[in-house]
Amino acid sequence: ECYYVSKPTSTNPFPEQSSQGECGKLINQDTFQLKKKHFDKLYFSNNDLAVFLYGNSIFYVSKSGKIARTHFIDNGPDYFNEGLARTISKNKYGYIDEQLNIVIKPEYDFVFPFENGKAIVCNDCVIESDGEHNVVANGTWGVINNTGKILVPLKYSKKELYLSKDYKRLTKN
């Protein structure tokens, strides 16, 4: 069952996200084949992207029909920070641009949004529930730039990363 915001109509000028029934087929956990009748009903925002939920996954879809799984945050899709949003493939995280092209291959266990051209990434980390929210814990942490180049090697614990000279050097300005 899919949930999405459909195009406004004269009888429903301000549609909200709602169940739209069976709208396609999940090919694998990251690839979705959307039925044409549902694609035609999607509401595309100013950036020419629409969003739909299927099960526990959330996807961006472009007007050209390209679909990319993204990170679920704040009851919606990941935000584009500095032109990039998180994507998920085979339980690994990477980044896509606003045309849904993969910019940084999904190869990390978790990634954070870009800020000032840098993003914190981790491997062997896990997402744990912390009451109403989730936290990322354990694993090895590092920093990449917006082309995927490693700026701080993934060798630190979360706490050690923030205390490291490598991280402080990157963030002193």
The run of helices and strands is EEEEHEEEEEEEEEEEEEEHH
Number of β-strand runs = 18
Number of helices: 3
Main sheet summary:
5 strands, antiparallel
- The end-to-end span amounts to 47 Å
How much of the residues is beta strand, in percent? over 45%
Cα Rg: 18 Å
Mean residue pLDDT: 93
**Overall 3D geometry?**
elongated
Order of the strands making up the biggest sheet: 2-1-5-6-7
Assign the structural class, choosing from mainly alpha, mainly beta, alpha/beta, alpha+beta, or little secondary structure: mainly beta
> Unreliable stretches, pLDDT < 50, 5 or more residues?
none
Helix content: under 10%
Which key terms come to mind for this protein?
173 residues, mainly beta, 4-stranded antiparallel β-sheet, 3 helices, 10% helix
Explain briefly what this protein structure is.
The chain is mainly beta. The chain contains three helices and 18 strands.
How would you describe what is shown here?
The longest helix has 7 residues. 10% of the residues lie in helices and 47% in strands. The strands form six sheets. A five-stranded antiparallel beta sheet has the order 2-1-5-6-7, with no helix packed on it. It is mainly beta and 173 residues long. It is built from three helices and 18 strands.
List the SSEs and their pairings.
Layout: E1 2-4, E2 18-21, E3 24-26, E4 32-34, H1 36-39, E5 49-54, E6 57-62, E7 67-70, E8 72-73, E9 76-77, E10 85-89, E11 92-96, E12 102-108, E13 110-111, E14 118-123, E15 126-130, E16 133-137, E17 140-145, E18 150-156, H2 158-163, H3 165-171
Antiparallel strand pairs: 1-2, 1-5, 3-4, 5-6, 6-7, 8-9, 10-11, 11-12, 13-14, 14-17, 15-16, 17-18
